[in-house]
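Here is one chain, start to finish.
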Amino acid sequence: MELTGSIITLTGSIVLFLGALGIFRMPDVYNRMQAGTKATTLGTVLFLIGVSLGHPGCGCQGKIVILIVFILATNPVSSNALARAAHTAGIKLTDRSVKDDLKDDTETGEAK
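Its structure:
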């Protein structure tokens, strides 16, 4: 069980590293935010599951489950709020972006 936990923890660490690389390489704030949010959500969940499996006698499985639920509930919501705030503040998309779903909302003043 310790080997399985170590492999899952390593996988989570790799996902977190790739997310950091994605933040560095993406062209605009919206793409960076997406790369960071997806990577931190998946990477942290995998890392915590790996720690839980690797150390079953620590008695912290309940806390890890609460942390995972909290991360799954708050990361996407906070990322969405930050992206809408950035769009409202007028931060432009990159020239390579093909679609701006919020453009119509800001012009008409409606919220989806």
